[in-house]
């Protein structure tokens, strides 16, 4: 029986690395290292941008009001549908919240999101989604006579909301580019597609996955105060007091009433005041579809980590003092976004002292032969990019903690980078400790931990909270509260 491979000690592994490559590694460390002082500077500026986004004038960070007004108490009950429209798949869930506090049962199905839909027409998109929902209902409730089922729709694209069951798309992301949708309400055509098919579903809440992550996590953990996504993109949500949101002051909401804010803070520092951008970050931004936007996201999100790595490798290839891949065809490496975050993950996870898996990876993916010394460069480069991403990602979290004076709390985190990238959490926790100056020897006061299913359970819970709020007589942020109350009078 072969036991698990152990990570050997790498002490002294640089002895066989040529001096020019050792110098290269030192130069990369100088380029990508982010000091404690810099993290604190970024975090303090982040607080100012969060506050600016809540004003009438606004700022780079949208700070979208969600009309999710409060945390669950664990006693929510009923059966709810959840729809998650991602970039690759469409997921439909049926979630039952039983009497037992903090528990749930879930049925779910996934449907592939055809690539052609992303650049097709709006009608084609909504019709496809409605067809998937119809298939789900017919499969799981064949022959049953159903009343209207409440739906929480996780629509993880920047949207402004005058009501929780309404949303105007600000801009497409995740590869979508459908004409005639940006600047318009997405709920009306979606509901029309359902009505055309006679599907017994009523959209009750349109949410962002970050808000859903916070609410789903808070359902089972009362210390949960922030929801965060560290994946293809980055974002966070937290609960603000309505009295601290100047841009909705005209609505005269009770000042102590809670309101979930979907920060959309990938746009932090679009003015380039504090983030330590390298020449590689500047290239990524310049060559992106939307230069000048999502500055923070382009430095920490999974979509860009592989591209950062690729650009550095190209730069080192062109450097006559380094000349990686000397004499080889690097045509594959010249293709933009040919590498993703998983490429870096696999390098960081290489368990062998001679980095043989890294050698094999370059051969398989890029048709390049690499030396042991070059592998040491790649290993350190992957560590530097991954570490910088995790450290910078905590500037947003620490800024929310500072703004809300959260000394101790939990952060529910989801996304491929958080869940799959090696060492992300310990590196992030170390950065938080540095930024927030926790006393030596104390446990982590702000703990970033794996989230519950925000796009499923979170969406269902927000639908449940919305209906409960209507029945309790609160009509804030609901288009037609009386109609909703009547429609769902059977739900407890």
Describe the structure.
- The chain is α/β, with parallel strands linked by helices.
- It has a domain at 65-222 and 452-487: ATPase, nucleotide binding domain (Nucleotidyltransferase, domain 5).
- It contains 15 helices and 13 strands.
- The strands form 3 sheets. A 6-stranded mixed beta sheet has the order 1-11-10-9-12-13.
- The longest helix is centred in the C-terminal third of the chain and has 33 residues, at 372-404.
- The radius of gyration is 24 Å and the shape is globular.
Topology (SSEs and partners):
Elements: H1 19-32, H2 36-53, E1 64-65, E2 78-85, E3 89-97, E4 105-112, H3 122-140, E5 149-155, E6 159-160, E7 168-169, H4 187-197, E8 201-207, H5 209-220, E9 224-230, E10 234-241, E11 258-262, H6 279-286, H7 297-300, H8 302-318, H9 341-348, H10 356-366, H11 372-404, E12 409-414, H12 416-420, H13 424-436, E13 446-450, H14 454-471, H15 481-487
Parallel strand pairs: 2-5, 5-8, 9-12, 12-13
Antiparallel strand pairs: 1-11, 2-3, 3-4, 6-7, 9-10, 10-11
Helix pairs in contact: 1-11, 2-11, 2-13, 3-4, 5-14, 8-9, 8-11, 9-11, 11-13
Catalytic activity: a D-hexose + ATP = a D-hexose 6-phosphate + ADP + H(+); D-fructose + ATP = D-fructose 6-phosphate + ADP + H(+)
Family: Belongs to the hexokinase family.
GO molecular function, one term: D-glucose binding
